[in-house]
Write a structure and sequence with these properties.
Cytidine Deaminase, domain 2; 20 helices; six-stranded mixed beta sheet; alpha/beta; Rossmann fold
């Protein structure tokens, strides 16, 4: 292995760089560098060779062209065990670069800024940097590549100990380097796909020629290729079951697959208390946040609380205070609420915390915009709670945005738009002789905001802007209706009912009326809508058709 005598350093992120370079110089390494990096190191008191002086070719085009030169890439790519390679190096006066330190222009950070223009984004597409990284990684048998400040310590330790680096470290750094450039290119590709969609371009040249823009008739939502860049956040204790390994990954910033920058998110939440989150906790908490978004959109003036068990809501409510909403949500199905996860649309205060710690209540995890100090004290000191309950602060929970949703099937991935954004009540139609009252309409809107989050076939009963009965995941809508009415008990009397899809027969309508349901909302669209409407008229039930189905499989 060649001794590391020269290092080429060209970075955008200069975190820890001066100390690293100082350590290299002390170990006898000569530093070559470019533009801003060279000035940064010189200001730190280090002697640095200018790449332009070495190559004899000046930086050009406002820095667009500086390292793309045979005297640079030859020194990186040369195979030190090949006489012909080393002969070429000597013949052309090329210095070898056994150490390359490069990180790339901050493209993701640039496009995350509000109002950034396409031109500004394009200027942050690095050309020389990825080429240097890939060249060094390809030649990792002889060249060490550093792409992140977290790697500096290990490299410096080995250089100090033996003047070079080990095969194991170089291979590990090469793998990280290829992942680094792959993620960088994926972010650029995803950004361009979104810009292309914004221009009204069709999915492909062939589709454009035929006029086929997809089943929805919209412009490109699904580009021909999707790059999914994910960074591991942590390994979880296990998956859905103890015998399954699992990990949590986060989508790279500002990508077409999520666009989640600035949004309340579990992966960026502050954990204030409790044990590690499990795979199932994360799934349930994500569902809880999704419903909280719908409650905010339904009526941002009211506080909302959601109770989730096995990825379905067993309680949800809004009220003038969060404590009232929390009590109503927990009482929606008190038995199922034990060991559940909870979300809130507002900061958890002391009054809400007192509701949570009442006797015979226990939850696994709570996600909310924040927790005030008094609430935190209550939730982390009371017996049975203490270190057990996970408390996650996610920041403001806002209305949902229409992102893409991914679901794996064997051999492929299904992609669709998220089913978010409340259906406009202006498109709804009252199709029965009896009209719902204003209060019933408010209840129906709330029920419609919740039912989309329940596994199909979904039936939700609501009274007093609180869920009182849920029928979820049944093969028959009749069964879901029966379960929801049984769960609600006496509270079914005077409640309103929401169904995520149409009623194929009038049997569920008669079942609901017998249970005491007072009004119904559903999408309609069945061949037997007339029979269903006639049954409502016969039974004196007002019914609203929304025209939009909300299956959740």
């Amino acid at each position: 292995m060649p001794r590391i005598n020269n290092a080429l350093i060209s970075v955008s992120d200069k975190t820890g760089l001066a100390d690293f370079a100082r350590g290299l110089v002390a170990a006898g390494v000569k530093i070559y560098s470019t533009g801003g990096t060279r000035r940064h190191l010189e200001e730190a008191g280090l002697a640095v060779e200018d790449i332009a002086s070495y190559t004899g070719f000046p930086e050009m085009m406002d820095g667009r062209l500086k390292t793309l030169h045979p005297k640079v890439f030859g020194g990186i790519l040369c195979r030190h065990d090949r006489p012909d390679d080393m002969s070429a190096i000597g013949q052309h006066g090329i210095e070898t670069f056994p150490l390359v330190v490069v990180n790339l222009y901050p493209f993701a950070g640039t496009i995350a800024k509000p109002g950034v223009t396409l031109g500004e984004a394009i200027e942050q597409i690095d050309i020389g940097g990825p080429s240097l990284v890939r060249a060094a990684a390809k030649n990792h048998a002889f060249t060490t590549i550093a792409t992140d400040a977290s790697q500096y310590g290990a490299i410096l330790d080995e250089v100090k100990a033996g003047g070079t680096t080990t095969d194991a470290l170089r291979f590990r750094l090469a793998a990280a380097a290829f992942a680094h450039t792959a993620a960088y290119d994926a972010t650029i590709a995803e950004y361009f796909a979104r810009q292309d969609a914004g221009r009204g371009t069709t999915t492909s040249g062939d589709a454009g020629a035929s006029g086929d823009t997809g089943s929805t008739g919209d412009t490109v939502k699904f580009p021909p290729t999707l790059s999914m860049t994910l960074d591991r956040v942590e390994e979880l204790r296990y998956g859905e079951n103890p015998h399954q390994a699992a990990a949590l990954y986060v989508a790279s910033a500002a990508t077409v697959l999520g666009g989640a920058l600035g949004r309340a998110s579990l992966v960026s939440a502050r954990k204030l208390n409790g044990k590690e989150l499990s795979y199932n906790n994360l799934l349930d908490l994500d569902s809880a946040v999704a419903i909280a978004r719908s409650l905010v959109e339904d009526d941002p003036r009211r506080a909302g609380a959601v109770v989730i068990k096995h990825n379905n809501p067993c309680g949800a409510a809004t009220a003038t205070s969060l404590a009232e909403a929390m009590r109503a949500a927990l009482d929606g199905d008190a038995t199922s609420a034990f060991g559940s996860v909870i979300s809130a649309t507002r900061t958890i205060d002391a009054a809400t915390a007192e509701v949570l710690v009442e006797p015979d209540r226990f939850v696994e995890a709570i996600v909310a915009p924040d927790f005030d100090p008094a609430a935190l004290e209550i939730l982390t000191t009371r017996p049975k709670w203490k270190a057990n309950v996970r408390l996650m602060a996610v920041g403001e929970i806002d209305a949902a945005r229409r992102d893409l949703q991914f679901r794996q099937i064997d051999g492929g991935v299904l992609v669709q738009e998220s089913d978010v954004g409340l259906d406009p009540p202006g498109d709804w139609k009252v199709v029965t002789a009896k009209q719902p009252t204003d209060e019933q309409m408010a209840e129906l809107r709330f029920a419609w905001a919740v039912v989309r989050h329940v596994k199909s076939n979904a039936i939700v009963l609501v009274t007093g802007r609180a869920v009182c009965g849920v029928g979820a995941g049944q093969m028959s809508r009749v069964d879901s209706t029966e379960i929801a009415i049984r769960k609600a008990g006496d509270r079914a009397k005077g409640s309103v009912l929401a169904s995520d899809a149409f009623f194929p027969f009038a049997d569920s309508i008669r079942q609901a009326a017998a249970g005491g349901v007072a009004a119904i909302i559903q999408p309609g669209g069945s061949r037997r809508d007339d029979e269903v409407i006639a049954a409502c008229d016969e039974l004196g039930l007002p019914m609203v058709l929304t025209g939009r189905r909300h299956f959740k499989h």
